[in-house]
Amino acid sequence: MHAALTSSHHMQNTSIALSKEAVAEIKRVAAFTEQTSAKIDALQARVDALSITAGEMKASIASAAAAMATAAASAARNADIQILQLAIVAAKAGDGAFSYQDGTRKSSSIVAETLQYFMRGLGMWISNEYYIRNTGYYNQVTEEEKAAFRDALSIQIHQLTGTKPRIVKEKNGTVEQWVIYRK
Predict the structure, then answer these.
(1) Residue-range definition of the domain harbouring residue 106
(2) Number of domains in the chain
(3) Do the domain assignments include residue 47?
């Protein structure tokens, strides 16, 4: 019986030793898991910080691009205004004036007024009373004679500004009338 007891006692001691080793191993695994988890959390924090930085950078680039577009548009508008100012001075000086019939104004005055409308970003109605007569006959004004005036006005503005204006027919109340626009 003593041998059975000794064997049982030996098994019990072996079992306790194995249990202590298992507990120690579990503690080592738990410590490793805790360290790994801490490292993963630190890496995640770095990734999150990089994501925020990339997002901030993207927003900053978008903001800079918008500011550059605004500056370019402003510069283009300022250049356009300078061109129109110089063209008004030249028109008032009579550069490239052309003859037309209505009897009340010089063509240079009409060109300068049109350019002033353009500076405000507007178009200008073209009077149906303006025409260029190619014959000496004083009969009713034709559409061709009115078109000749519009063409001469367009050519004059194109020569002064470097940009051909756009002329379109639009409704003015109940009447259709020609309008000249900068572009």
Answers:
(1) 77-181
(2) 1
(3) no
With bands split at pLDDT 50, 70 and 90, how would you rate the model's confidence at 140? confident
Classify residue 161 by its DSSP letter.
H
Say how many C-beta atoms besides its own lie within 10 A of residue 1's C-beta: 5
Angle at 136 between CA 130 and CA 140, to 5 degrees: 50
Cα four-point dihedral sign 29, 30, 35, 36: positive
Chain segment 88-120, per-residue pLDDT in tens: 999 888 876 777 766 677 888 899 999 999 999
Q: Which two tokens stand for residue 144?
A: 């061709």
Partner residues linked to 175 by β-bridges: 172
The whole-number pLDDT of residue 125 equals 94
Return d(Cα 109, Cα 115) in angstroms, integer: 10
Q: Note if the pTM is more than 0.90.
A: no
The two three-digit tokens of residue 123, written as one number: 């178009």
CA dist list (Å): 174 to 11, 52, 170, 177: 114, 60, 10, 10
Q: Is 36 helix (H, G, I), strand (E, B) or coil?
A: helix
Amino acid at 127: S
Summarised one tens digit per residue, pLDDT across range 158-177 is 999 999 999 999 988 898 99
